[in-house]
């Protein structure tokens, strides 16, 4: 096992440090996958906050390190029970990226001689690669995390529906229920969303729960017509 003071790579040193902490630090040794969930979510949001705030590179580097720590910890817990280790995680995601990006890589991981000219072509090839991995998956919404925030779940669901060729008429839906069309800028859209949440609050309604229910209804209706 590499030690924190070894001359190995920085990643090897990090793996050694976490291994030592798991063995000798009672707090670190008591961590479980379940107890780490809140930290994983928190650290991911801190990266988002850092990016959206226009953080300097040093701050962003630190936040990314905190996310990497979560990955290393989960991999270490799995290694201790004889399941998999960090190298397995890295090997798996690398193989997945090669497999999913057939527009860039050959099956053996070597680069293709030519590459697609448009993002649209890339998306088509990416989706085809995903379908080839799991041909039994028919539901376009399968795999969307159920605990995503409602707005993120709504946007991802709409994106999945469009990419699956389903009929999505957002503007028509808004007009049908008497709501204004979506503003042309993100600033105006944010103000509209805030106003909707404020109105919901005054009526004693839970905007997050309401949108989550609407997303589920949208997914169910689209699944029935696909």
Automatic annotation (TrEMBL):
From the Swiss-Prot or TrEMBL record, give the protein name.
MazG family protein
* Gene Ontology molecular function, alphabetical: nucleoside triphosphate diphosphatase activity
Organism expressing this protein natively: Paenarthrobacter aurescens (strain TC1)
| Pfam families registered for this protein in UniProt | MazG
Q: Which stretches make up the NTP pyrophosphohydrolase MazG-like domain?
A: 32-105
Query: GO biological process: any one?
Result: UTP catabolic process
InterPro entries for this protein = MazG-like_dom, NTP-PPase_MazG-like_N, NTP_PyrPHydrolase_MazG
Q: Which domain of life is it from?
A: Bacteria
């Amino acid at each position: 096992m590499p030690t924190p003071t070894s001359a190995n790579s920085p990643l090897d040193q990090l793996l050694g440090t976490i291994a030592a902490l798991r063995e000798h630090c009672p707090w670190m040794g008591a961590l479980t996958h379940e107890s780490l969930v809140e930290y994983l979510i928190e650290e991911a949001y801190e990266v988002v906050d850092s990016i959206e705030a226009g953080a300097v590179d040093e701050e962003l580097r630190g936040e990314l390190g905190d996310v990497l720590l979560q990955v290393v910890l989960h991999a270490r817990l799995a290694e201790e029970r004889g399941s998999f280790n960090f190298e397995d995680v890295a090997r798996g995601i690398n193989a997945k990226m090669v497999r999913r990006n057939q527009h860039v890589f050959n099956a053996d991981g070597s680069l293709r001689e030519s590459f697609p000219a448009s993002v649209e072509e890339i998306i088509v090839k990416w989706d085809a690669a995903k379908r080839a991995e799991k041909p039994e998956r028919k539901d376009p919404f399968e795999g969307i995390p159920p605990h995503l925030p409602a707005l993120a779940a709504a946007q991802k669901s709409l994106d999945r529906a469009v990419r699956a060729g389903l009929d999505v008429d957002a503007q028509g839906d808004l007009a049908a229920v008497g709501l204004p069309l979506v503003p042309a800028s993100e600033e105006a859209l944010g103000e509209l969303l805030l106003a909707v949440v404020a109105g919901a609050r005054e009526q004693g309604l839970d905007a997050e729960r309401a949108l989550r229910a609407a997303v589920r209804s949208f997914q169910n209706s689209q699944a029935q017509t696909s």
